[in-house]
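Chapter summary example.
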Amino acid sequence: MRTDPDAAIRAAACAELDRLRFAHGPKLPWSVIDRGFSFRGEKVHFAGRAVGIFKPRQMSAALSIKTVAPRAGRRFWYRDQMGEPDYRTGLLAYDLARGGRGDSTNRALDEAYSRRAALIYFVGVSPAVYEPLSPVWVEELDFDAGRVLLAAADAFHPTMSSIQAAQAGGSSAELRERSYSLVATKKRNHQAWFSSRTKSAYGHRCAFSGLTLSRLLVGAHILPDAEDGPATVTNGICMSTLHHTAFDADLIGVDTNCRVHVARSVRDGRDGPLLESLKGLDGAGLRLPARSEDHPDREFLDWRFQRFLETAD
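The structure predicted for these 313 residues follows.
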């Protein structure tokens, strides 16, 4: 893996993107994205209006990729506009520009791939409106097929892709091959996209505390994966790693009215300010996504809350 000389610009881009999501919500109009961000006194663009793969002039490899949502009645002209994952891996497919190896934007993406550099993926959700997903990594690039396969951040290792996390602890060549054949890893890739979309729906804020530090947030299931819970935003809540641990341990629960409940064992405990912050959640309302269609499914909440009641006191 090669070092990335653009790392500082990527970090600045991600920091500004977090600020924009906090200010405008998870869906950003192109007019906001097009303002770019400042890096060492220069304006740097996030993405290009007319291209899907974008490399700012200040960088030596791609910073972002973009999918445009067609207007009503218009046809899909790239496969990635349909948002279908690759059946073999569970990774998300993205089409290269049609110039193949000769296209400069494809070469910029290939350069980011060779460095294992994280990218921003601007997913078109309606004309001129985008949902930024970041970070994402190119896991496979095939010029002959004209596409790349993208991995999102692993739900529990947010600085690593789902593939990187699956490969941790073994030889790269051995585990890379195995990662594409194991059903468990394919499911992990799906879960990485689920976590990324759930965090985006909640504006990258913890639904319990309002925390906005992306690296401390996960998209957590309400109805667990082990109980055949679907990998959909309505079966997810964005929460910090602390609240996720408490939620999984049934120390905090959420009823069908999205009110938070804290187990008696926590309420009666005395163990410093961290425990007090959990106790203070009792009776509070959950911070919900801006779009009502992204709100938690009441049936999933009811199932999970009944489990909480059985063990909470």
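To summarize the output: Confidence is low (pLDDT under 50) at residues 73-82, 169-182.
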